[in-house]
Amino acid sequence: MGIIGWILMGLLAGMIARFLMPGKDPGGCIVTPLIGIAGGVLGGWLGKIIFGVESIDGFFEISTWIAAIVGSLIILGIWRLVVRARD
After folding, report:
1. What does the buried/exposed string (b/e) look like for 60-72 if buried means 16 or more CB atoms within 10 Å of the residue's CB?
2. What pLDDT sits at residue 56?
3. Smallest Cα–Cα separation from 5: which of 68, 74, 48, 52?
4. 82 CB neighbour count, 10 Å cutoff
5. Sequence-ordered alpha helix ranges (H) in the chain
6. Which of 24, 26, 42, 78 has its CA 20 to 30 A from that of 84?
7. 3-class state of residue 51 by DSSP
8. How far apart are CA 43 and CA 84, in angstroms?
């Protein structure tokens, strides 16, 4: 998957994660794709470590999207804890 695919998947996975975990978040249109991209990497790594499978196979694979969304939810939760601790 190329860099454009990662950015597009990151944007969509970040938006889905924010939809599934509603709340007021600082950041906006720059932080959302970054959370999604980091979530995709984290989800792929966790899938490989925990389940021993390659979960980032391709843009249209369901395992890629599940890994990216779960990873994005984890990153979003950590992001909220860090931002809330600074306030």
Report:
1. eeebbbebbbbbb
2. 59
3. 68
4. 9
5. 3-20, 31-46, 62-86
6. 42
7. helix
8. 24
Polymer length of the chain: 87
pLDDT at 80: 83
Summarised one tens digit per residue, pLDDT across range 17-73 is 888 887 776 667 777 778 888 888 888 788 778 877 665 567 777 777 888 888 889
At 71, the amino acid letter reads: G
- pTM score: 0.79
Q: 69, 16 in Cβ contact below 8 A?
A: yes
In the predicted structure, residue 4 carries a pLDDT above the cut 70: yes
User: Does residue 11 carry a pLDDT above 70?
Assistant: yes
Domain parsing of the chain, residue ranges: 3-21+28-86
Both structure tokens of 53: 């499978």
Query: How many C-beta neighbours within 10 Å does residue 22 have?
Result: 7
